[in-house]
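#structure-requests
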Amino acid sequence: MSACGFICPRPTSNVHVLFATPMTFLTELHEAFKEFDYDQDGYLNYKDVAECMRTMGYMPTEMELLEIVQQIKMRMGGLMDFEDFTELMGPRMMGETADMLGLKELQSAFVQFDVDGDGIINQDELKEAMKTLLGEKLKKGELEEILKELDINADGSIDFEEFVMMLSIR
């Protein structure tokens, strides 16, 4: 698993990106999922979900585990596929990151990127932030690649949730 704080080197260039990508996050989730999918049928048994969560660095409370197990047993027949696992872990990892960094700090960092204050970071704002905050002048292709990796919902911009997600990668 990658260990990434706020600055991660991009393997394909000398440009340093201020954040890790959601694709890296999904890759890490998938690796953890595969590790605990013992029979490799594409499903986790409810008994293995807690250990898998802990492997990802998320420490659920006993009450939270009871609720999760109950939900998996009732709604999913005791098994969880990767899509369900992603839905379970994504918000929790984002929430944990928000708790660790503090919501106020995250919002403050987001505002640094969101120059026009419309609640999203567009390509021009990302380009300016990379130049101003990191001193990196990106070529158009590099900028588009970064935006594509971070833009989970493919709307052409980065919203606050996607911003928090990119900081959630460990």
